[in-house]
Amino acid sequence: MSPLWLISTYFVVTIAEILISPMGLSYVSKVAPATISGLMMGGWYLAISFGSYGAGLLGKFYSQLAHHQFFLLLAALLALAALLVGLAIRRLERYSN
């Protein structure tokens, strides 16, 4: 496999993070109470660090599982995350108005 594949993948992930992070911080500052807005922004970065750590732990399974099992695991985690966001979105929309 070409090293260009790895470099281009990191490039796409980095650009995505650069584009998503300001939107997330803006939303956090909008819905958080003014007294703890800074703390909530720190929580945003803490959540990103936990997610990155979890992605690293999950990456260890790539060589231990069959490829279809690994990607089914990723799909299941995605569905779980979508369900959790779906459950929380109404509560968050209340605060954003």
SSE blueprint:
Blueprint: H1 3-31, H2 37-59, H3 67-96
Tally of individual helices: 3
Instruction: Name the poorly predicted regions.
Output: none
Structural class: mainly alpha
In terms of DSSP E residues, the strand content is under 5%
Count of separate structural domains: 2
Question: Overall 3D geometry?
Answer: globular
Average pLDDT confidence is 90
Q: What is the CA-CA span between the terminal residues?
A: 49 Å
Rg to the nearest angstrom?
Answer: 17 Å
For the sheet with most strands, the description reads: none
Q: Could you tell me the number of beta strands?
A: 0
Give an account of the 3D structure.
This protein is mostly helical and 97 residues long. The chain folds into two domains: 1-56, no CATH class; 65-97. 85% of the residues lie in helices and 0% in strands. The protein has three helices and no strands. The longest helix is centred in the last third of the chain and has 30 residues, at 67-96. The radius of gyration is 17 Å and the shape is globular. The termini are far apart. The mean pLDDT is 90.
Core attributes:
97 residues; mainly alpha; single chain
Q: What would a concise description of this structure say?
A:
With 97 residues, the chain is an all-alpha fold.
